[in-house]
Amino acid sequence: MLAELRGLNEECGVFGIWGHDDAAQISYYGLHALQHRGQEGAGIVTKEGKKFHVVKGEGLVNEVFSGNEINDLKGNAAIAQVRYSTENGRGIENVQPLVFRSTTGSLSVAHNGNIVNAVELREHLERQGSIFQTNSDTEVLAHLIKKSSGSLMQRDRVKKALSMLKGAFAFVILTDDGLMVAQDPNGLRPLSLGKLGDAWVVASETCAFDIIGAEWIRSVEPGELIIINDKGIQSDRFAQAADSAMCSMEYIYFARPDSDIDGINIHSARKRCGKQLAREVHIEADVVTGVPDSSISAAIGFSEESGIPYELGLIKNRYVGRTFIQPTQEMREKGVKMKLSPVRQVVNGKRVVMVDDSIVRGTTSKRIVNLLKEAGATEVHVVIASPPLVSPCFYGVDISTDSELIATNRTNDEIRELIGADSLTFLSAEGLIGAIGRPEKTKNCGQCLACFTGEYPTEIYSDTVLPYKKEIV
């Protein structure tokens, strides 16, 4: 499961609103809905006339805004972010939204994703005199916008800057004059546009619209730049759309089950993955159980298709955070031990099908198999609602180095032995594509499968690969 991840690089959630008197309060509720996308930092920036107000800090949303801070955020426009950070990206200076003030106007930026040519661009900007205050890729965009000023209109400066970025990005940009929203040309990260009365809202996931009572309008298109201001809303392009490649992990793990991505409900997609798994393997068993929470939908689907009863065989301690968020391996291991408990009365003396969303390093899967057997399960058959993870991700999901991925250079039977399962089955790549059901008529039907296949939808720069490889040396 993705709780085994050594770290996630900038897997965050962003939110924006324009034209509402309670912009800060609505952003606060939006961040609560997106809390699952990052638990190490949160922030809101509002615009009151030409003045920007900012409150941000490390921790959960309700920790950062534990007092009356929200009352200090005046204005009818805001952007916000919940953040997960990497080892080098922690610290209050990296918590977003970032705010930049200059004689030519203020700018605030929040970002979800990973810019694969960020190091190259940063070095170029530093040679031209730029001084960076953070380790975040997001700051690169602000410097590019300022460097491309001259006689260009602000919209054109932003378009020029965005066109220089490579990789996965969903940006919300608050300026003196409006709210700008941008999606990378491949559409690797989810971003949706909605309406709340007369106000416009944007969020990484549609579950944020549900909590504030907003209506979903559409997804932001790949390569699109949306400009929202007091005159209304306009759509422009900073790049032509490339082959759509939405991150498959959004459907498998990251997004909330009640969210929709490009019109596809996450719970329904995961349930179809479970049904497809049951078609691809025949297992004689007594009970199906899912690893909470992201695997429950797939487990229900597997049960319905196979005819094996679904039972609550594993219980999650709701007061323990998602273990992949923990910043050290020791803390993660302690979190795994506290996180799940088997229901002995359900699994004792039973042949159990354990459904999980993925296997990364295998340590958590091994632990759960052992828990079930210690609780009396006679057999534990592990079925995974995704293909084997064999390659690092450079688009915002920091799936570890090749050497730490259990499926790299190992056979299915070798993995099964390492985790102690009686059998192990992964969903096929073709099964995943069909189960998610994106309509694009392309090779991968509009999905990024790079972590399963090693085939990346964009150019990968050497300075991006290096941090993933240097631990192998």
Mind explaining what this structure looks like?
The chain is α+β, with helices and mostly antiparallel strands and 473 residues long. It folds into 2 domains: 2-242, Glutamine Phosphoribosylpyrophosphate, subunit 1, domain 1 (4-Layer Sandwich), CATH 3.60.20.10; 259-469, Rossmann fold (3-Layer(aba) Sandwich). 29% of the residues lie in helices and 25% in strands. It contains 16 helices and 23 strands. It has helices at 23-33, 61-64, 118-127, 138-147, 154-163, 207-212, 248-254, 266-280, 296-306, 329-339, 344-347, 363-374, 412-419, 429-436, 450-453, 462-469, and strands at 13-18, 41-48, 51-58, 77-83, 98-100, 107-115, 167-175, 179-183, 192-196, 199-203, 215-219, 224-229, 232-237, 246-247, 260-261, 264-265, 287-290, 314-316, 340-342, 351-356, 379-384, 423-426, 447-448. The strands form 6 sheets. It has a 7-stranded antiparallel beta sheet with strand order 3-2-4-1-10-9-11. The protein has a 6-stranded antiparallel beta sheet with strand order 5-6-7-8-12-13. It has a 4-stranded parallel beta sheet with strand order 17-20-21-22, with helices on both faces. Helix 3 (118-127) packs across helix 4. It is elongated. Residues 1-10, 322-326 and 466-473 have low confidence and may be disordered.
